[in-house]
Design goal:
single chain; alpha+beta; five-stranded mixed beta sheet; 42% helix; 9% strand; elongated
């Protein structure tokens, strides 16, 4: 169902009927317009530019190329967020907008994300915040709500793994299949899971994430924002690692420059 949209990024895009008829814009300033353009054109041309400046005084510390400070505000850093992993105060936050029916989202989940977790999340450098962005119709929406419901019992990431396993998408995301995935994920109370997945709270959560993504101009999955730096598509691991390293280095340099400026 999903096809690559240009190179180097491989993304999945919805058909014209898949997007909401109306949506509330995400009004956070002119930077969003530029970020939307980057996301829409399989961004991250800066990946070959070498990134931001080095610490040689407060004036010389510059963020990595392609970073929009306003977009950093999208990071929620909520310690109780079941759809996130990593320290709330991690220096780098990667926001992931994805759909469980997206083939390239599955590729990222299987081939890239585990390595990022081992190298950066476990070390306290990176926090990953998931945003539901269902773009492939009713089953995408149902899977998003089911994932949220699994999170209510602390099993979101286990559900995420089960839903993105090889061959899982091909089985569909009907009601019975979602219940099977919840059981596989270790969700304890399946009746509660079903109620939560069909609740107004689940629908509101998915809608909030979806509107945030569309408000940014993201129309394909997966799309990412790494400390305010947009990145589109299931890029190679090295691309994500470089983005995280540069964001962490900039944050460290900025902190050092601030301490130097205060004489600490």
């Amino acid at each position: 169902m999903s096809k690559p949209q240009g190179t180097p990024a491989s993304t999945s895009k919805p058909g014209p009927a898949s997007r909401p008829k109306s949506r509330k814009p995400w009004l956070i300033g002119a930077a969003v317009v530029a970020a939307a353009a980057l996301l829409g054109i399989a961004s991250y041309g800066a990946s070959s530019s070498g990134g931001g400046g080095k610490d040689s005084g407060a004036e010389a510390v510059e963020p990595p190329a392609g970073t929009f400070p306003e977009l950093e505000k999208l990071a929620r850093r909520d310690g109780g967020d079941a759809l996130a992993q990593g320290r709330p105060d991690a220096p780098v936050v990667m926001i992931e907008y994805a759909d469980f029916k997206c083939s390239y989202c599955g590729k990222f989940a299987r081939d890239t994300e585990p390595a990022l977790v081992r190298k950066y999340v476990d070390a306290g450098t990176l926090r990953i915040e998931w945003r539901n962005m269902p773009i492939f119709g009713a089953e995408s929406e149902a899977a998003a709500r089911a994932a949220w419901a699994a999170g209510r019992q602390g099993r979101f990431w286990q559900f995420h793994t089960a839903a993105y396993a090889h061959g899982s998408k091909e089985k569909g995301f009907g009601e019975d299949r979602l219940r099977e995935l919840a059981k596989e994920a270790g969700v304890g109370d399946l009746d509660r899971f079903a109620r939560d997945a069909d609740s107004d709270a689940a629908k509101a959560s998915v809608k909030k994430d979806q509107e945030e993504a569309y408000g940014l101009g993201a129309s394909s999955t997966p799309s990412f924002v790494i400390n305010g730096r947009p990145l589109a598509g299931a890029q190679p691991l090295d691309t994500f690692a470089r983005a995280v390293d540069e964001a962490a280095a900039y944050r460290a340099a900025k902190t050092a420059a601030g301490a130097k400026g205060t004489g600490k």
